[in-house]
Design a protein that fits this description.
- By secondary structure, the protein is α+β, with helices and mostly antiparallel strands.
- The chain folds into two domains: 1-31; 33-159, Glutaredoxin (3-Layer(aba) Sandwich), CATH 3.40.30.
- It is built from six helices and five strands.
- A five-stranded mixed sheet has the order 1-5-4-2-3, covered by helices on one side.
- A hairpin with a 2-residue loop joins strand 4 (121-126) and strand 5 (129-134).
- Mean pLDDT is 82; it is low at 30-51.
């Protein structure tokens, strides 16, 4: 009787772990966007983009070992190219956190504020403030999310 009880305990433990993983996956798929709380300090525009009030700065946070990052990267680059000067794309490899103090500071700031929680993460700084999109994304998802960052829609948003 002890063997069957132990086996049942193991099965229940395994089912609990599987259920927890399924719940986490569902949360990631259904709630991938982060919006900075109203009144929070968004990063000020850099001098290069300060002259373009409708420009969105994208920070793409990724890791070499992340397969979702590898799949999402071409979509991020393609969308950024489609938007032309309306988008400024910066890419930050997590491997540089140990060797580049600026990259380390950026990751630490995003993590502290809850903006960065998973790879890949795209953070937008634009006319509507700061917003983040996490997890694997398609070009369509990225473009729709990016269009929502503008107060005046650029050309790619008018055709989507």
């Amino acid at each position: 009787m002890k063997k069957s009880t132990m086996a049942l305990d193991r099965v229940l433990a395994a089912l609990t772990i599987i259920l927890a993983l399924v719940v986490m996956l569902m949360l990631l798929l259904h709630y991938p966007q982060y919006q900075a709380p109203a009144g929070s300090a968004a990063r000020p525009p850099t001098p290069a983009n300060a002259a373009l009030p409708q420009q969105v700065q994208l920070d793409y946070l990724y890791a070499d070992w992340c397969s979702y990052c590898t799949l999402t990267h071409p979509a991020v680059v393609s969308v950024a190219m489609r938007f032309g000067p309306a988008v400024s794309l910066n890419e930050y490899n997590e491997a540089l956190r140990t060797s580049d103090p600026q990259v380390a500071s950026l990751y630490a700031d995003y993590k502290k504020r809850g903006v960065f929680t998973l790879f890949p993460t795209i953070v937008a700084h634009g006319p509507r403030g700061e917003s983040a999109l996490g997890g694997m994304q398609t070009e369509d998802n990225i473009q729709k999310w990016l269009c929502a960052q503008y107060t005046q829609a650029p050309a790619p948003c008018k055709t989507s």
